[in-house]
Structure formats: structure tokens, C-alpha cells
Design a protein that fits this description.
Among the domains are: about 55 residues, Uridine Diphospho-n-acetylenolpyruvylglucosamine Reductase, domain 2; about 100 residues, CO dehydrogenase flavoprotein, C-terminal domain (Enolase-like, domain 1), CATH 3.30.390. With about 290 residues, the chain is α+β, with helices and mostly antiparallel strands. The chain starts with a strand and ends with a strand. The C terminus is likely disordered. The radius of gyration is 19 Å and the shape is globular. It is built from 11 helices and 15 strands.
Amino acid sequence: MRYYRPATTAEAIAALAAEPRTSRILVGGTDLLVAMRHQKVEPTLLVDIKSVQDLVEPITVEDEGITFGPTATMSDLVAHSVVRQWFPSLVEAAALVGSVAIRNRASLIANSANGSPAADTSPPLVALNASVTISSVNGERAHSLREFFLGSRRTLCCGGEMVTSMWVPRPAPRSSSAFERMTRRRGVDLATCSVAAVVDVDSAVTVGLGAVGPTTLLGGPGASFDLSSPEQMERALDALLAAATPIEDIRAGKPYRTAMLRLLAKRAILRAAEQRTDENLALPDVLGGRSGG
């Protein structure tokens, strides 16, 4: 195995393209190094992009939304004031990833680019309509994160390519979001199931579902309904969770996952609804309306 530390994005992409089947990108390394230790992945080339000079900045705030670069970590998200105001569900998910040491290293983009259906940050990102830019020697292309996922550990990012940025649009006025997750052990286990809910001013709901299908799933946006009505809530949950296909595995049985998914979805929806306020979406006057992370 060889180690390469490119200085530019072009150099990184060229190196990946030269060995598309057996090269791997190293940024946080929190998943890759574990996989290598257990010989689940045996790359011939590690391309370390942490010193690439022209990478997209970790966090860039604009009026229309926020762009995240490959080196944005979970800790960066948790500490960033605008990310906290606009995307509470994403911050809640990032704060649950591993330990403090892992959050200081783990890359937001890599967490999704691995394609794990149990990735903590993927349900909020899917519910928030995030998109990614994939770069290769042939140029760039953009895809919604929902269509980016093809199956467990399979994405639209092929060998010789890398995800160079992620964009999350600014939420609509008086909307908010929340994240709920269940694991066997807090912080050191994959999600048994997880739900991110986005609730808008009219009480229309969109959900992202984790660990209950071969990919992170999208439910909604559903029709507006009376959140205080148990009957309407149950009907809405039927529709929003219809895509879920939970399995039986070591973490939980199918009936238990199904029941907990519904409970977590209800909790996330009600918490998101309670958090709706115009102040949550105000853009701080930082750098003339922009903020770098």
C-alpha cells in the first residue's frame, strides 16, 4: 500500500483515477482505518486530502443555504452558530456520532459518502434536501443526496471520483427539524433505527429514515395535518413511514424496529413543530451575510 498527499484537488482526482478500483480517500479515517484493520478494505493507494489547498471551505454560509467541504467535521457542525439555528436535526445527529475524539475527526461528507443506511447524519440531510457535487477527471456533476444512495455501501460516486462538496438549502421560514435515534449503547453503536423530521409553517412533514431499508429513505413531504389530533398523526405516520422495510439482525428484530421507528418519528415531528420560530432562521450579520467555518 502507498500513501499520497496531494496539494490540489486535481492531483487527488488524478491519483484516484489512475487506480479507480483499489484507491481510497483518507480524510477523517474513522471508518476507513477500522475497515483496513479488519481487512475488509485493502487499498493499494491512500489519497490523503487533508492538505489539499483548493478544497471547498469546511462551512460556507450564504443566503440560499450552506455549503460543506470534505474536511467539515461533526464537531465543526455542532459548534457553528448558523448550522445550529438552521439545521437543528443535523446538529443533533452530528452530536451523537461516536465520542468527542471521533467527532473531531469524522467528516460530514464521508459519513454520507460511505453509503451506510445507518449513518447518523444521512436522515437529516435527506429530509433537508441536501445535494452533493461529485468530481472526476471528466468534470463535475450534482445529485440530490436521496438519489446519491443506491444501496447499502453503494453510491453514485464511482471509483476514481470524489465528493467535493455538499449543499443544504436554507429552510423555509417558520420551519424546523429534529432528530431521534435508538441504539443499544449511546455513542458506540450503529443506529437500530433513526428519524429526522422537518415540519414547515403549515405543519407539512418530511422525514428521513435511517437503518430501516437498504438506503437512507425519504418520506414526504406529506399533506398538512393537525399535529394535536392523534388520528391525523397516525394517518400521517402511515404515509410517511410506508417506505420503511426494517430487517431482523443482531441489533433488533423487525417488529421492534417497526414499533420504535413509529415512536421516534412521532417524537421528532412534535419536537420539530415546537421549535418553529422565525428567529431560528435569522442570518447573523457575519462577514456581510456570509460565515466561514
